Amino acid sequence: MDTDRTAARRITAAWLAACALTVTSAVVATVTDSAEHEASTLVSILVLGLGAAKAWLILDEFMEIRVAPTWLRAAARGWLAVLVVGIVVLYLQ
Amino acid sequence: MNTLWDRFEGVMVRGEEDDRIAGDFNMWVFVLGDLVIFGAYFVVFMVHRFHEPELFRASQGHLNLLIATLNTIVLLTSSQLVARAVHAARQGDDAAVRRLITQAGGLGALFVVLKVTEWVIEISRGYTLPSDEFFMFYFCLTGVHLLHVLLGLLIFGVVLHEIRQGSGRRVTLVEAGATYWHMVDVIWVLLFAVLYLLR
């Protein structure tokens, strides 16, 4: 039962953190925007990082990747890392 | 006699550390494949954005960030309910599973309503698929994702039906449905960052 309670607490904590990251990224993107919609590398890297953190939380806590077999953990986390790094590299070109 | 695939599955799925994965092995193969395909969509989007960054930024400014943010929270909440349904299924609490999956499905339906509302707003303002390259990607990417949401709602229906029938595979079914739904959530949070927030 303790394990069940711990699991429930982890799920709730991950959900609250993901919602907080969502609101934070939306607020950051809104308050830093201008009428000319100028590009901002700092804001872009920040919102991508917050998005990646949310995806990591979903993979690890909701999809239980953190306790999955090594091959699955490596595949899921590797996919996310390669994708986010790829997006950042293409953005910075 | 075991096939090569059975042996591979046995070694890779049951042979290490936690001994098992949540859900069905075939569902994980599908989910990983789908993630790779969506990853390619993201790369293609970024390549096109690289060629016309000003146009992409200007067009992005017409999107409704409020609805998109609300939809992100709706989908995250739905995923949280599904994660709790998995634990309820493992405890054999079928009533809780039915309640949680139904609530998650309701939020999934709300996501669809909000997404269609967002599209209607954009279209009524003259921003359609052929308007420019950004809106072509916007409608295609969110459209493909919406099809995944609809498939997820169908899977929830199958899971609820099987639980009502007293299926002996109910834990695996709930886990497999949850795995798919969380994948839909992962793709959305990245779409949200790239389509709506990237400056």
Structure description:
The complex is a heterodimer of chains A (93) and B (199). With 93 residues, chain A is mainly α. Chain A has one domain (2-91). Helices cover 81% and strands 0% of the residues of chain A. The termini of chain A are far apart. The mean pLDDT of chain A is 91. With 199 residues, chain B is mainly alpha-helical. Chain B has a single domain (23-197), classed as Cytochrome c oxidase, subunit III, four-helix bundle (Four Helix Bundle (Hemerythrin (Met), subunit A)). Chain B has 7 helices and no strands. In chain B, helix 2 packs antiparallel against helix 6, helix 2 runs parallel beside helix 7 and helix 4 runs antiparallel to helix 7. The model of chain B has no long low-confidence stretch (mean pLDDT 90). The interface between A and B is large, with 53 and 53 residues.
Mean pLDDT across every amino acid position of chain A:
91
Number of H- or I-type helical stretches of chain B:
7
- Shape, per Cα inertia axes of chain B: elongated
Q: How many domain modules of chain A? A: 1
Count the beta strands of chain A: 0
Radius of gyration of chain A: 16 Å
CATH superfamily of chain B: Cytochrome c oxidase, subunit III, four-helix bundle
Residue windows where pLDDT falls under 50 for at least 5 positions of chain B: none
> What distance separates the N and C termini of chain A?
52 Å
Please trace the helix and strand order of chain A, writing H or E for each element: HHH
Unreliable spans of chain A are none
**Main β-sheet description of chain A:** none
Rounded to an integer in angstroms, the radius of gyration calculated over CA atoms of chain B is 19 Å
Beta content of chain A comes to: under 5%
Sheet with most strands of chain B: none
Q: Give the distance, in angstroms, between the N- and C-terminal Cα atoms of chain B.
A: 57 Å
Number of helices of chain A: 3
